[in-house]
Amino acid sequence: MGTKADQTKAVILAAARERFAESGYEAATIRAIAADANIDPSMVMRYFGNKDQLFAAAAEFDLRFPDLSDVPPSELGTALVSHFLARWEDDDALVVLLRSATTNAEAAQRMKDIFAAQLMPAIAKFVPAEDAPRRAGLIATQVLGMALCRFVLRLPPVVAMSRAELIEWLAPTLSRYATDPTP
Prior knowledge:
By secondary structure, the chain is mainly α.
Protein backbone atom coordinates (compact mmCIF):
# COMPACT_ATOMS: atom_id res chain seq x y z
CA MET A 1 0.00 0.00 0.00
CA GLY A 2 1.16 3.49 -0.78
CA THR A 3 1.40 6.31 1.70
CA LYS A 4 -1.90 7.84 0.51
CA ALA A 5 -3.74 4.60 1.36
CA ASP A 6 -1.94 4.38 4.71
CA GLN A 7 -2.90 7.98 5.50
CA THR A 8 -6.52 7.31 4.55
CA LYS A 9 -6.64 4.20 6.77
CA ALA A 10 -5.08 6.14 9.66
CA VAL A 11 -7.68 8.92 9.30
CA ILE A 12 -10.50 6.35 9.20
CA LEU A 13 -9.14 4.54 12.28
CA ALA A 14 -8.76 7.79 14.23
CA ALA A 15 -12.34 8.78 13.35
CA ALA A 16 -13.58 5.28 14.21
CA ARG A 17 -11.85 5.25 17.61
CA GLU A 18 -13.36 8.62 18.46
CA ARG A 19 -16.84 7.67 17.26
CA PHE A 20 -16.82 4.27 19.00
CA ALA A 21 -15.58 5.91 22.24
CA GLU A 22 -18.21 8.64 22.05
CA SER A 23 -21.20 6.63 20.82
CA GLY A 24 -20.42 3.00 21.61
CA TYR A 25 -20.39 0.18 19.11
CA GLU A 26 -24.12 -0.06 18.48
CA ALA A 27 -24.75 3.64 17.81
CA ALA A 28 -21.64 4.25 15.69
CA THR A 29 -22.30 3.95 11.95
CA ILE A 30 -20.02 3.59 8.96
CA ARG A 31 -21.68 6.69 7.50
CA ALA A 32 -20.97 8.77 10.63
CA ILE A 33 -17.36 7.54 10.81
CA ALA A 34 -16.86 8.36 7.13
CA ALA A 35 -18.33 11.84 7.69
CA ASP A 36 -16.01 12.35 10.68
CA ALA A 37 -13.06 11.30 8.50
CA ASN A 38 -14.31 13.51 5.66
CA ILE A 39 -14.33 10.64 3.16
CA ASP A 40 -16.88 8.59 1.24
CA PRO A 41 -18.42 5.66 3.17
CA SER A 42 -17.39 3.32 0.34
CA MET A 43 -13.75 4.00 1.25
CA VAL A 44 -14.36 2.77 4.80
CA MET A 45 -15.88 -0.42 3.37
CA ARG A 46 -13.04 -0.78 0.87
CA TYR A 47 -10.36 -0.68 3.58
CA PHE A 48 -12.17 -2.42 6.45
CA GLY A 49 -15.01 -4.50 4.97
CA ASN A 50 -17.69 -3.94 7.60
CA LYS A 51 -18.34 -2.35 10.98
CA ASP A 52 -17.12 -5.39 12.97
CA GLN A 53 -13.83 -5.47 11.07
CA LEU A 54 -13.42 -1.70 11.46
CA PHE A 55 -14.10 -1.99 15.17
CA ALA A 56 -11.60 -4.83 15.54
CA ALA A 57 -8.95 -2.72 13.79
CA ALA A 58 -9.81 0.36 15.85
CA ALA A 59 -9.66 -1.65 19.08
CA GLU A 60 -6.18 -3.09 18.60
CA PHE A 61 -4.74 -2.73 22.03
CA ASP A 62 -1.43 -3.63 23.56
CA LEU A 63 -1.31 -3.39 27.34
CA ARG A 64 2.49 -3.00 26.91
CA PHE A 65 3.19 -4.80 30.13
CA PRO A 66 6.60 -4.05 31.54
CA ASP A 67 8.66 -7.00 32.71
CA LEU A 68 7.55 -7.28 36.32
CA SER A 69 10.15 -9.92 37.27
CA ASP A 70 12.28 -7.43 39.21
CA VAL A 71 9.35 -5.86 41.05
CA PRO A 72 9.27 -6.92 44.72
CA PRO A 73 5.98 -8.71 45.53
CA SER A 74 5.14 -5.94 48.03
CA GLU A 75 5.19 -3.39 45.17
CA LEU A 76 3.41 -5.49 42.55
CA GLY A 77 -0.05 -3.98 43.18
CA THR A 78 1.33 -0.46 42.85
CA ALA A 79 3.12 -1.37 39.62
CA LEU A 80 -0.02 -2.98 38.16
CA VAL A 81 -2.43 -0.16 39.06
CA SER A 82 0.04 2.49 37.87
CA HIS A 83 0.54 0.69 34.59
CA PHE A 84 -3.17 0.14 33.92
CA LEU A 85 -4.05 3.75 34.73
CA ALA A 86 -1.34 5.01 32.40
CA ARG A 87 -2.63 2.76 29.58
CA TRP A 88 -6.27 3.81 30.06
CA GLU A 89 -5.34 7.49 30.18
CA ASP A 90 -3.01 7.35 27.16
CA ASP A 91 -5.11 5.34 24.71
CA ASP A 92 -8.82 5.56 23.93
CA ALA A 93 -8.86 2.06 22.40
CA LEU A 94 -9.38 0.29 25.72
CA VAL A 95 -12.22 2.67 26.61
CA VAL A 96 -13.78 1.91 23.20
CA LEU A 97 -13.38 -1.78 23.85
CA LEU A 98 -14.79 -1.64 27.38
CA ARG A 99 -17.80 0.42 26.33
CA SER A 100 -18.51 -1.98 23.46
CA ALA A 101 -17.70 -5.26 25.23
CA THR A 102 -20.91 -5.08 27.24
CA THR A 103 -23.09 -5.31 24.11
CA ASN A 104 -20.90 -6.79 21.38
CA ALA A 105 -19.61 -10.39 21.36
CA GLU A 106 -16.60 -9.58 19.17
CA ALA A 107 -15.54 -6.77 21.49
CA ALA A 108 -16.02 -9.00 24.54
CA GLN A 109 -13.87 -11.69 22.93
CA ARG A 110 -11.17 -9.16 22.10
CA MET A 111 -11.14 -8.02 25.74
CA LYS A 112 -10.82 -11.65 26.92
CA ASP A 113 -8.01 -12.27 24.45
CA ILE A 114 -6.10 -9.16 25.54
CA PHE A 115 -6.24 -10.12 29.19
CA ALA A 116 -5.46 -13.79 28.55
CA ALA A 117 -2.51 -13.06 26.26
CA GLN A 118 -1.08 -10.09 28.16
CA LEU A 119 -2.06 -10.12 31.84
CA MET A 120 -1.90 -13.85 32.56
CA PRO A 121 1.75 -14.32 31.51
CA ALA A 122 2.77 -11.33 33.66
CA ILE A 123 1.04 -12.84 36.71
CA ALA A 124 2.34 -16.35 35.97
CA LYS A 125 5.85 -15.10 36.81
CA PHE A 126 4.78 -14.78 40.46
CA VAL A 127 2.55 -17.78 41.08
CA PRO A 128 2.24 -21.41 40.02
CA ALA A 129 0.96 -21.63 36.41
CA GLU A 130 -2.32 -23.27 37.44
CA ASP A 131 -3.05 -20.27 39.72
CA ALA A 132 -2.39 -17.58 37.11
CA PRO A 133 -5.77 -17.62 35.29
CA ARG A 134 -7.83 -17.21 38.48
CA ARG A 135 -5.53 -14.52 39.85
CA ALA A 136 -5.41 -12.64 36.54
CA GLY A 137 -9.21 -12.84 36.42
CA LEU A 138 -9.51 -11.34 39.90
CA ILE A 139 -7.09 -8.56 38.97
CA ALA A 140 -9.18 -7.92 35.85
CA THR A 141 -12.32 -7.51 37.99
CA GLN A 142 -10.70 -4.62 39.85
CA VAL A 143 -9.00 -2.98 36.89
CA LEU A 144 -12.03 -3.22 34.59
CA GLY A 145 -14.39 -2.11 37.37
CA MET A 146 -12.24 0.93 38.07
CA ALA A 147 -11.97 1.72 34.35
CA LEU A 148 -15.72 1.34 33.82
CA CYS A 149 -16.46 3.69 36.71
CA ARG A 150 -13.74 6.25 35.90
CA PHE A 151 -13.66 6.34 32.08
CA VAL A 152 -17.06 5.09 30.87
CA LEU A 153 -19.69 5.79 33.54
CA ARG A 154 -17.59 8.70 34.84
CA LEU A 155 -18.81 8.34 38.44
CA PRO A 156 -17.93 11.71 40.03
CA PRO A 157 -16.18 10.39 43.18
CA VAL A 158 -14.00 8.03 41.10
CA VAL A 159 -13.26 10.65 38.44
CA ALA A 160 -12.35 13.13 41.21
CA MET A 161 -9.72 10.83 42.71
CA SER A 162 -6.14 11.53 41.74
CA ARG A 163 -4.05 8.82 40.14
CA ALA A 164 -2.09 8.56 43.43
CA GLU A 165 -5.30 8.03 45.44
CA LEU A 166 -6.53 5.31 43.07
CA ILE A 167 -3.17 3.58 43.29
CA GLU A 168 -3.24 3.78 47.09
CA TRP A 169 -6.72 2.25 47.27
CA LEU A 170 -6.35 -0.45 44.60
CA ALA A 171 -2.72 -1.55 44.96
CA PRO A 172 -3.19 -3.61 48.17
CA THR A 173 -6.07 -5.54 46.58
CA LEU A 174 -4.14 -6.27 43.38
CA SER A 175 -1.10 -7.30 45.43
CA ARG A 176 -3.26 -9.66 47.45
CA TYR A 177 -4.80 -11.19 44.33
CA ALA A 178 -1.40 -11.57 42.70
CA THR A 179 0.74 -12.90 45.52
CA ASP A 180 -1.14 -13.89 48.70
CA PRO A 181 -1.54 -17.58 49.46
CA THR A 182 -4.68 -19.10 47.96
CA PRO A 183 -7.48 -18.90 50.56
